[in-house]
Fold this sequence. Notes:
Blueprint: E1 3-10, H1 18-30, E2 37-39, H2 52-55, H3 62-74, E3 77-86, E4 89-97, E5 103-107, H4 117-120, E6 129-132, E7 135-141, H5 148-151, E8 159-164, H6 171-185, E9 188-193, E10 195-197, E11 203-205, E12 209-211, E13 217-220, E14 227-234, H7 235-244
Helix pairs in contact: 1-3
Amino acid sequence: MSKLKVSVLQTDIIWENAEENLKNYNKLILQNPGSDLYVLPEMFNSGFTNNVYGCAEDNNGKSLTTLSEISRISGAAIATSLILKENDLFYNVFVFVKPDDRIIKYNKRHLFKLGGEGKMFTKGSERVVFEFRGFKILFQVCYDLRFPVWSRNTEGYDLMINVASWPIERRKMFDILLRARAIENLCYVVGCNRIGIDGNNLFYTGGSCIIDPKGEYIALANDEQEEIITATLDTDTIQEYRKSFPALDDKDDFNILV
Length: 258
């Protein structure tokens, strides 16, 4: 059996101010030690913005460098997203920062065209499932949650992480879809959403949570509050449930065309 202690940081984000956001998350993580993995909201260092020219960094930028330092000091991984520029293209990149300085990346596949993301960013084409401390983890960013084919558990992953900036107007959908992804994929799901009001005057109420393979909440943050929720996940729970209810054995075969 493998165990993974996960902490989800539901916070406000200072608009387009990487330095102050980095200070805040550094403090929160180091003052709340003991977890294997800390999960931060989407675009943790800027808020959800299309200001790619003002907020994008490269792989050697301050944000990734600082996250790597926090990860080394804490001995824990950190999962979040930020804007990265590569070969003159901009991506909303899920980053999984490990204590050994390795950074695993996933480029957000489903860009939120209604919010203008599709005009400024390039979409990803490759799903990423990465193993960490005995857990196979699927990476997702916000709008990816609406697309079950992209989430389909064909690799036997144990945990799906979705880092989000999901506003109040569609918050009920966020809650429902997180639970649906857990149920249909027989996996743990972690959702991390922000709170507060961003530079586009959008209001966020949170809903950050940790969900078990039956779709039940293990931990749920209070709405509109900065809060850290924590739970210890174990692979035995998944294996036992999949053995008693082997729905994944009946899944449809398909190929994703990119």
